[in-house]
Write a structure and sequence with these properties.
Elements (H helix, E strand, L loop, with lengths): L7 H6 L5 H23 L4 H9 L4 H29 L1 H24 L4 H34 L4 H30 L1 H21 L13 H36 L5 H18 L2 H5 L1 H21 L3 H27 L7 H30 L3 H18 L16
Length: 411
């Protein structure tokens, strides 16, 4: 293990591994991520419709239901980071996938007791919370695994790869979920949601585990102290994603537009394009610089959604939001993980994503409060304002961007 301090410029001068070899190493993990996040993407446009139209609850309750996943993740994420550091990334991925499968089971129960809106709502919320707990373990383990597989020179690419698989599942899952809901109802969709994480668990089980890094680990409080600024940045940038995920279907419905699920597809598609073509930029130019540029794009997308006169402009706004958020998340994450030693990397990722979890848990209910007095479009002005605050925080990271990997963080 090396004690070198690598800047983005020095990292870029190190000859990277052949892309095909890196892709082959990451592909099984990416497939597992894709399968688990179908559990997130497929029901995402369906649950607001089910809760609002079928069960009869108002937009505030919709926001609470969508935010319940992030609330559960928020509580479990710090433990997930420690679990990944101590037990290994494969164990975190497998246990997280198994817990995520329970979401589909609870959703299915919710369809069986639809005659009682309160009982059905309770089952849906239980499913969202199970998914949140599973996600806390699964994503923390998957991101740390991606960093391990990428290595010091390609840590950003490892994170990017996991994100591409995640949002590919979101982009494909959203229209798939709507199609299944319209054709056969929520019950069959719930059963599919319960099955896909089990396949992911099987894939992870067949992969060789990565070694657990030995050494003294930083206390969690100190980890938060080291990564608070990129953590706050990702929390604020995540509001744009949260308000699209929670309210895009109801926003379209309020305008009398069709094709709301394609708003999530536009977000996910642009997300994937950004990572596919520009995924190496944080490793080359530094996380803070890339994040700042991408936050400007996200702000533009949110403002377009706020002012959208037509569904085409709204789709463009969702796409720009996805494009900007796509690289802002791993770019700021790179700033976080490079400030801790390898043996605390899982804790750093867990602490970093806790910040995003807090944002996703609170953004839905807060935005729901704006709907009655201001309408659905106002929540995207909120998203744009939060992204602007994230950009201001990221400017403060620029002077610190040169020593991008903390001493001892390169393997």
């Amino acid at each position: 293990m090396s004690d070198r301090v690598l800047s983005p410029v020095l990292s870029a001068t190190v000859k990277p591994e052949a892309n095909l070899a890196l892709i082959a190493r990451l592909l099984p993990l990416d497939l597992a991520v894709f399968l688990v996040y179908l559990t997130v993407g497929a029901p995402l446009p369906v649950i607001p419709l089910f809760v609002n139209d079928r069960l009869g609850f108002d937009p505030i309750i919709v926001g609470i239901v969508i935010g319940a996943q992030a609330a559960a993740t928020l509580l479990a994420r710090p433990l997930a980071g420690g679990f990944s550091d101590r037990r290994g990334t494969r164990a975190a991925v497998m246990v997280g996938a198994l817990i995520s499968a329970l979401a589909g089971v609870f959703y299915f129960i919710g369809t069986l007791v639809e005659f009682s809106p309160a009982a059905s709502l309770a089952a849906i919320i239980a499913g969202r919370m199970a998914l949140g707990i599973g996600d806390s373990l699964f994503l923390t383990g998957a991101m740390a695994w991606g960093v391990q597989l990428g290595g010091p020179q390609n840590a950003g690419k490892g994170l990017m790869s996991v994100g591409i698989a995640l949002y590919a599942a979101m982009a494909i899952g959203a229209p798939l979920g709507i199609a299944m809901f319209n054709s056969s109802g929520f019950g069959p969709l719930a059963l599919v949601i319960a099955a896909t994480p089990l396949l992911a668990c099987l894939i992870a089980y067949r992969l060789p585990p990565q070694p657990v890094v030995s050494g003294a680990r930083i206390p969690l409080r100190e980890v938060f102290g080291r990564i608070w600024r990129p953590g706050a940045g990702v929390a604020l940038s995540g509001v744009g994603f949260a308000v699209i995920a929670a309210f895009i279907t109801l926003y379209y419905q309020s305008r009398g537009w069709n094709g709301a699920a394609y708003g999530l597809t536009a977000f996910g598609g642009a997300f994937i394009v950004a990572r596919f073509f520009f995924g190496g930029y944080p490793d080359r130019f530094g996380g803070a610089r890339v994040a700042l540029a991408c936050l400007a794009i996200e702000i533009t997308g949110q403002l377009l959604l706020w002012l959208a006169p037509s569904p085409a402009i709204a789709l463009l706004g969702a796409a720009l939001t996805g494009f900007g958020y796509s690289l802002a998340f791993p770019a700021l994450c790179l700033e976080a993980v490079r400030r801790v030693p390898p043996q605390s990397r899982g804790s750093a990722i867990g602490a970093y994503v806790v910040c995003l979890d807090f944002s996703l848990a609170s953004a839905g209910p807060v935005a729901g409060l704006l709907v009655a007095p201001l309408g659905y479009s106002a929540i995207y002005l909120l998203g744009g304002g939060c992204a602007a605050l994230a950009a201001m925080l990221t400017i403060g990271l620029l002077p610190q961007a040169a020593p991008a990997i903390a001493p001892g963080a390169a393997e």
